[in-house]
Every structure is written in structure tokens, then in C-alpha cells.
Amino acid sequence: VSEVCGEEPPVSESVKLYLFSESVNLEGNLVSGVAIHPKSIWHPEAGNDFKAKHDYLKEELKKAAESLKGKPFGEDHLRLLPPPNSIFEGHWDEQQNGVAFKGIVSDAVAQRIRNKEYKGLSVEIDWKKPGKYVMLEKTNGTAPRNFEFTSVHFLRQFPPGDKEAYVKLMEGLVLP
Fold first, then answer.
1. Model pTM score
2. Cα–Cα distance between 104 and 169 in angstroms, integer?
3. What's the CA gap between 139 and 151, in Å, rounded?
């Protein structure tokens, strides 16, 4: 019951609370985005045969999405970024038709995002996870099956394979 008007809000209305990172004293900056969509990605460094094209299938991305939780961010597939740069949530987003994530980045990485220094994102997957059978299916390229994500990389030097993948700084949290 509202103290202002003395009435209860209708059940169909949702109440939102806005929290801003400055007011909750977080170590780092909150980010969100979509790491990859179902698509074929060409890897020119792998040559010209079918192995150079990776087909990321929707059903496999859906299964692997939650494996992003707890994984680090990296840059250009050359290095992993030190803490606090990590992902705390990964899930399949039907509306975005992709693997969505939320994470925390350092002030330096946040500034690079603000300055649009990154060309895009790229995922890294574990092709040879111990105790887990990862299968490569021959399609028009190569489709990995039964994999997990190991990291999401911000690309400064290389063009992204999935041009629709993105990261954005979260200026505030919206809680239902």
C-alpha cells in the first residue's frame, strides 16, 4: 500500500527499482550483451576447406549458454583479462536469438567500450574438454557439438565473425 495515496497498485503493474553502480559501490563496471548468434563464421587462418567455416547451431548454443557463467573476458584471443573482468551470467535469449551475458569489467575496459575501441566480440569454446565428448559434425563447414564456452573476447585487432554480437555498459540495473 502506497504511503502517498493509500492505494495498492494493480496486480498487473510491475514495480521497478533502479540501482546505479555509483550508489552500490561495485568493484568494476557492469556490462551486458550478446556473445554469439546461430550462424556460420569463416576463419581464414584455417585455410580454404570446410574446416575454416564453423557453423554454430542454435540447439548447441542454447545448451552451452549457461557455461559462460564464471568465465573470463579476454582480448583478441591473445590474452585473458585479469579480475574483475568476468562473466557472472550466461543464458539463451529468445528475443535476441543468441547467447546473452552479463559481467563486470575493469575501468580500463569500460573506457575502451565507451571509446568504441573494440570492433566486436568473439567466443572461445573448449573443443577438448576432459571427460566430455565434443563432436565436430561436418556440415557446409564444421559444427561443434556438446561444447562449453571458455571466454568471451573483446576484439581490437581482428574483425568479428558475428557482426551482430555486442557489449554495452549497464548504466543501471532494473529489478522487477
1. 0.77
2. 9
3. 25
